[in-house]
User: What shape does this take?
Amino acid sequence: MDKIIRVSHRYRLFFQALFYLTPIFTALFWLMPEYFKKFGIQASVFPDKYTLSPSIQLLGFFANLIPAAVIMYGLWQLIQLFKNYEAKNIFTLENAKRYHNLGMTFIYWVFANILFNSLCSVILTIKNSNKHLLNVSFSSTEITSLLIGGLIIIIAWVMNEGSRIAKEQSLTI
Assistant: This one.
């Protein structure tokens, strides 16, 4: 059990760092897109020929906060889950709820990502062309995320039922 506590503590700290870094890196990404290009990091929404004015960068940042918020929600669920593991609370109804919320995070992310990409297609073509573009896409990445989210929700359901049955059995004389 001590090993679970130690590993859970490390993962909690890691997820807490990611939680706080998510909005920071999102802001930096939109403030300095050329810097990230040097390292081969470029959003698929950035066309090569377009320049990003400060107003476009700001709008892009706000649009990017939608999927970032979903990611932060998922990280928060993981932080709370590993905090419970640190406290030796492993098979509990609260953890089953956290798993359910984590599964829902994958589903929310799909819709947030579609919305973000659609908003960015409009934002990036506001000033850079005579034609405005609205791009709505659904790919295998979204399908995979929906499947993973569904599987995690089923696992949460099983954990919830197992916890309920264990509680009933503990009350039986």
In short: The first helix runs from residue 2 to 31. The chain has five helices and no strands. The chain has one domain: 2-171.
